[in-house]
Amino acid sequence: SHVLHRDIHGGAQVNPLFTVENRDLPAGVTGSNLLGSPPSVSEPCVCTPCEITEVYDGDTITVRVSIDLRVRLLECWADEVHTKDEAAKVRGIASRDHLRGLAPNGSKAVLTVPMRGARLDDILTMGRVLGYVSVNGQDLSARQVADGFAKATKE
């Protein structure tokens, strides 16, 4: 079903940009995540086409829907780019650069946000939307982990 919104006359209209559906999570997504429980095989999600506008670091990207959203990739924990630990910084820059290769600015993508909570705060952390992003059918979190540029869980 599509997300409904009310027009100024009180009638329901379908918003074709966003869909709310039970959807299988991206291939390779397993284990616990930032929302506190392992993803089920199928769970309610908000899904929308999007465009990559910036890769910030190895586990955070900005996508444009009708506004830019900073997305914290679920099941993807990369070293930080901005840290005093020089070894971690080198790994963080390598991770960010790898993600930039997977998701260049302007890439057409799909943002999937699992809807497990009743409040907007349940899908946000530090001003970022918690979600999965796929480019050309490839889940960026799973690819970052598989290629050794991130871990699936926080250490």
What does this structure look like?
This protein is of the alpha+beta class. It is built from 2 helices and 9 strands; from the N terminus they run βββββαββββα. The protein has a 5-stranded mixed barrel with strand order 3-4-5-8-6. The termini are far apart. The model is unreliable at 1-18 and 28-41 (pLDDT under 50).
Give the overall average pLDDT. Answer: 78
Overall geometry comes to globular
For the biggest sheet, the summary is: 5 strands, mixed, barrel
Provide the spatial order of strands within the biggest beta sheet: 3-4-5-8-6
What's the total number of strands? Answer: 9
As a whole number of angstroms, the C-alpha radius of gyration is 16 Å
Query: In angstroms, what separates the terminal alpha carbons?
Result: 38 Å
What structural class do helix, strand and pairing data support? Answer: alpha+beta
Order of helices and strands: EEEEEHEEEEH
What's the number of helices?
Answer: 2
> Uncertain regions: pLDDT < 50 for 5+ in a row?
1-18, 28-41
- Helical amount: 10-25%
What amount of the residues lies in strands?
A: 35-45%
What keywords describe this structure?
disordered N terminus; alpha+beta; 2 helices; 5-stranded mixed barrel; single chain; 155 residues; globular
